[in-house]
Amino acid sequence: MSVITVERKILEKNEQIAKRNRDLFQEQGIVVLNFVSSPGAGKTSILEKTLQELRGSLKIAVIEGDVQTDLDAQRVARYEVPVVQIVTLGGCHLEAKLVQDALQNLDLNGLDLLFIENVGNLVCPANYDLGEAIKVVVLSTTEGDDKPLKYPGMFLNSSVLIINKIDLIPYVNCNLSAMKKNALQINPSLRIFEVSCFTEAGIPEWCTWLRKKDVSGQ
Amino acid sequence: MSVITVERKILEKNEQIAKRNRDLFQEQGIVVLNFVSSPGAGKTSILEKTLQELRGSLKIAVIEGDVQTDLDAQRVARYEVPVVQIVTLGGCHLEAKLVQDALQNLDLNGLDLLFIENVGNLVCPANYDLGEAIKVVVLSTTEGDDKPLKYPGMFLNSSVLIINKIDLIPYVNCNLSAMKKNALQINPSLRIFEVSCFTEAGIPEWCTWLRKKDVSGQ
User: Fold this and answer.
1) Which of A128, A205, A154 is nearest to A41 (CA)?
2) Chain-centre distance of CA B206, in angstroms?
3) Which uninterrupted H or E stretch holds A116?
4) Cβ atoms B85, B70 nearer than 8 A
5) Contact between residue A169 and residue A201 where contact means Cβ atoms under 8 Å apart
6) Residues B3, A3: C-beta atoms closer than 8 Å
7) Please, which of A89, A116, B95, B210 could form a disulfide with A63 given CB 3.0 to 4.6 Å?
8) Between β-strands A160-164 and B83-87, what pairing exists: parallel, antiparallel or unpaired?
9) Interatomic CA distance for residues A166 and B103, integer angstroms
10) Closest-CA residue in chain A for B145?
11) Residue B166, domain extent
12) How many domains are there within chain A?
């Protein structure tokens, strides 16, 4: 029972800091997106394609979360946007406090969008609010269409689902209709995009939607 | 600091029960494998192919771990082996106690192999010994060759790496040599198998190795 109490306290503390982060983002008019997925679903590739499309017209920064290495930060930095890397040293998810600390290293002035790439993990990050406006779960076709049913927490807590690697559908055992049906069964209000970072299919539609989010201030 | 203490106590308790599980498995001469990976890397497909190949000559049972649903247990049960499903209801990894409880529902008498399929998560299950003889990490080519460097804990704690979905290499941005090099950089003693559950390439080699493990009693 003591463990449950500690866990609850951690989550309560996290929610307090997440609220402070959220208030700060709203004051500054920054739309913040928290990207979550399994390892290798393509979060970094989607960020790269999005930066390529939007960095000319919007001011964007990125916070990268990884268990180890700054490989993703290096990939994103090539697009000449400010990037802060959080290395969790084994930690399985980002927390609001880590984001709060990372913000000390970012100039928020005039920023339109902040992308936070969470640790690759389809379970734990679901419970940790970072203060984002939009949680984006990325699921690749190679992972199988049953994943929303098997990892419901993440799909329930997200507002956007990006289905990635649609170019691989001919080669894998994935039923796209079933994948979407399963996701909407868990969360009927999910906004779904279907993309391929390889062919760039669907990337313009996703970026158009994102542009509107910035204008509306979310 | 109190959180660290609690976590340490949980791990100590887990290790005590894992040791009891391990003693029991050794007494009974059962070789136990704990399969870990990201969601969708193909743990269940590998189990299905392995059961198809070995169930005629060896007595095998399966424990399935999932956050939610018994979809995997249903898939495995088609091979007419005893299966026990553990649903963690949001829990991000299996623990030794859950396996100990699951064993109450299995007849261990005369069993050669016990496969435990962990929750799909490349981070948290690394720290929880279940009492297995062999931890098998499954990594699919679609996840990218950088994953061993980004999630080192799991590769360090495993003794076998199965690289799955090698049939998809022509269609994805994965350098197989770099993937193996990265894995061996983290853990030079990893035994690596390259397989495709779609073409069945590499499955016979993996099953031959497994058969020898049974004979040697590991």
Assistant:
1) A154
2) 13
3) strand A113-117
4) yes
5) no
6) no
7) A116
8) unpaired
9) 41
10) A40
11) 2-211
12) 1
For chain A positions 29-58, those within 8 Å of chain B (CB to CB) are 38-40
Query: Phi and psi dihedrals of A114, rounded to 5?
Result: -125, 120
The strand pairing partners of A36, in sequence order, are: A137
User: Quick one: pLDDT at residue A214?
Assistant: 67
| Structural domain includes residue B33 | yes
ipTM: 0.88
Mutation target vs B (from A10, A67, A137, A157; most B CBs, 10 A cutoff): A67
Contacts of B39 in chain A (CB under 8 A): 38, 122, 143, 147, 150-151
- The pTM of this model reads 0.92
Sheet holding A160-164, edge to edge: A83-87, A60-66, A113-117, A31-37, A134-140, A160-164, A191-194
Q: Is residue A12 part of a domain?
A: yes
Give the distance from residue A127's alpha carbon to the nearest chain B alpha carbon, in angstroms.
10
Q: Is B80 left (phi over 0), alpha (psi -120 to 50) or beta?
A: left
What does the pLDDT look like over B131-147, one tens digit per residue? Answer: 999 999 999 999 999 99
Q: Give the CATH number of the domain where residue B184 resides.
A: 3.40.50.300
Q: How do residues B153-184 score in pLDDT, each as one tens digit? A: 999 999 999 999 999 999 998 999 999 999 99
Q: Residue B191 and residue B173: Cα distance in Å, rounded? A: 24
Phi, psi at B181, each rounded to 5° = -60, -45
Which whole-number Å values give the CA distances from B18 to A77, A83, B7, B34, B180, in the listed order?
A: 44, 42, 16, 12, 30
Tracing tokens 């049953």 back to the chain, one arrives at: A146
User: DSSP string of A44-85?
Assistant: HHHHHHHHHHHTTTS-EEEEEEESS-SHHHHHHHTT---EEE
B218 in a domain, yes or no?
no
Name the token pair of A157. Answer: 């807590």
Per-residue pLDDT tens over the stretch A122-131: 999 999 999 9
Compute CA distances B64 → A168, B27, B48, B83, B130, whole Å: 28, 23, 12, 7, 13
Query: Strand A191-194 to strand B134-140: parallel, antiparallel, or no bridges (unpaired)?
Result: unpaired
Is B178 a domain residue?
yes
C-beta of residue A143 within 8 angstroms of C-beta of residue A64? no
**Gap between the terminal Cα atoms of chain A:** 39
A89 vs B: CB within 8 A:
no
Instruction: Report helix, strand or coil for A164.
Output: strand
Residue A89 burial (C-beta neighbours within 10 Å; 0-12, 13-18, 19+): exposed
pLDDT of residue B7: 62
